[in-house]
Specification:
The protein is an alpha+beta fold. It has 6 helices and 5 strands; from the N terminus they run ααααααβββββ. Strand 1 and strand 2 form a beta hairpin.
């Protein structure tokens, strides 16, 4: 469902229903959104696509939530995944089990998850993009940040876009972009 938000295919009047479902306790494990609801008969917290949490899928959902203006929900998922990454030396595995966070003290990787894994390594970049709200517009980069207080500030130097290098800084809902000097 998060991919549908990312694609923009969900009519605005239906987005709230999709978001409520994604963030419901049976879908959101506390570490991320599961591939299958805990309420489904086929749910299995360690089943490959039967209830596991895939970081890359979650990052796509986060970008979709941001697209529709659900920044609080996007940040909740982003923080959960970043906190999960701490348990893996900041190298997210391909998938996590779908066990409820309140029942376990750390995220459990899917038993045969690859780590590193290409699409999982891109997850933090998508999460930062969502929080900073960075977009290319008319030959320049613009930001619309919503940085969680837990992170404080996000900066990036030497972002290459439109044949130029850019610098960004974002704190809370304030941010700026400027051409890099030199």
């Amino acid at each position: 469902m998060g991919h549908l938000l990312w694609s923009g295919i969900v009519p605005r009047e239906r987005a709230d229903t999709v978001v409520r479902q994604l963030m419901a306790e049976d879908m959101f494990s506390g570490w991320g959104i599961r591939t299958l609801s805990r309420a489904e008969r086929r749910y299995n917290a360690i089943g490959y696509h039967l209830g596991t949490v895939w970081p890359h899928d979650n990052s796509i959902a986060v970008l979709g939530l941001t697209r529709y203006g659900y920044r609080t929900e996007a940040n909740r998922i982003s923080l959960a995944l970043l906190e999960a990454a701490e348990h893996f030396d900041y190298r997210l595995p391909e998938a996590l089990t779908g066990f409820q966070r309140e029942r376990i003290i750390f995220p459990v990787p899917y038993p045969t998850a690859c780590s590193p894994q290409a699409w999982a390594t891109g997850t933090p970049l998508a999460l930062v993009r969502s929080m900073v709200g960075i977009e290319p517009v008319d030959g320049k980069l613009v930001v619309d940040p919503d940085i969680p207080a837990e992170l404080g500030r996000i900066t990036a130097d030497r972002i290459r876009a439109f044949g130029k290098l850019w610098e960004i800084e974002a704190v809370g809902t304030s941010g700026h972009v400027r051409l890099a000097s030199g």
